[in-house]
């Protein structure tokens, strides 16, 4: 997010040395506002349902793009509660647990991903954020080389499954598995 004006005093922001790097901050030293641009905490769920993984497609994504269930951690929530809430809200399923998988960076969106394995029961009922979902057997799951994909890879490997990357389109029009 790019701010132009100080949210505390409404003066224009400048880029200057604050702390150990250049950051946006208020030009008025009496105000003292600095935009630290800290990463946003996001929870991610590797949802296990009926012995398979659920991957879902967000309404804003192109056809064929599927990933894990994710959502912003809300004020006052623990990550365990937040990830279970997201599974309930987005898939309509009842989470049975939240088992920590790991922390992952997602620099492009300035997010810190807090990933969990969430076994769940019930009938899938998508909310308005999602347009499609699919079950994928553990041994057929392929991870994407970014953010939540690395969480899926690590979880599969911990289960003894030889996790393989999906083929991504390259800049030259072919595919690559790197």
Automatic annotation (TrEMBL):
<feature type="domain" description="Nudix hydrolase">
    <location>
        <begin position="38"/>
        <end position="158"/>
    </location>
</feature>
<dbReference type="InterPro" id="IPR050241">
    <property type="entry name" value="NAD-cap_RNA_hydrolase_NudC"/>
</dbReference>
<comment type="similarity">
    <text>Belongs to the Nudix hydrolase family. NudC subfamily.</text>
</comment>
<dbReference type="GO" id="GO:0019677">
    <property type="term" value="P:NAD+ catabolic process"/>
</dbReference>
<dbReference type="GO" id="GO:0046872">
    <property type="term" value="F:metal ion binding"/>
</dbReference>
<dbReference type="Pfam" id="PF00293">
    <property type="entry name" value="NUDIX"/>
</dbReference>
<dbReference type="InterPro" id="IPR000086">
    <property type="entry name" value="NUDIX_hydrolase_dom"/>
</dbReference>
<dbReference type="GO" id="GO:0006742">
    <property type="term" value="P:NADP+ catabolic process"/>
</dbReference>
<keyword id="KW-0479">Metal-binding</keyword>
<dbReference type="InterPro" id="IPR020084">
    <property type="entry name" value="NUDIX_hydrolase_CS"/>
</dbReference>
<dbReference type="GO" id="GO:0005829">
    <property type="term" value="C:cytosol"/>
</dbReference>
<dbReference type="GO" id="GO:0035529">
    <property type="term" value="F:NADH pyrophosphatase activity"/>
</dbReference>
<dbReference type="InterPro" id="IPR015797">
    <property type="entry name" value="NUDIX_hydrolase-like_dom_sf"/>
</dbReference>
<keyword id="KW-0460">Magnesium</keyword>
<keyword id="KW-0378">Hydrolase</keyword>
<protein>
    <submittedName>
        <fullName>NUDIX domain-containing protein</fullName>
    </submittedName>
</protein>
């Amino acid at each position: 997010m790019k701010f132009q004006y100080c949210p505390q005093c409404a003066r224009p922001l400048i880029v200057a040395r604050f702390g150990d790097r250049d950051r946006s901050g208020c030009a008025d030293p009496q105000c003292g506002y600095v935009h630290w641009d800290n990463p946003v905490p996001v929870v991610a769920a590797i949802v296990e349902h009926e012995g398979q993984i659920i991957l879902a497609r967000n309404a804003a994504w192109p056809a064929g793009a599927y990933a894990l269930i994710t959502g912003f951690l809300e004020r006052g929530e623990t990550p365990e509660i937040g990830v279970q809430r997201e599974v309930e809200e987005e898939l309509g399923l009842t989470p049975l647990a939240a088992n920590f998988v790991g922390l992952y960076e997602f620099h492009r969106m300035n997010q810190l991903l807090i990933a969990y394995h969430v076994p769940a029961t019930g009938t899938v009922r998508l909310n308005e954020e999602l347009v499609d979902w699919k079950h994928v057997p553990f041994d057929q799951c392929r991870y994407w080389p970014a953010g939540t994909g690395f969480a899926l890879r690590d979880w599969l490997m911990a289960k003894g499954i030889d996790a393989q990357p999906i083929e991504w389109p390259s800049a030259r029009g072919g595919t690559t598995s790197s």
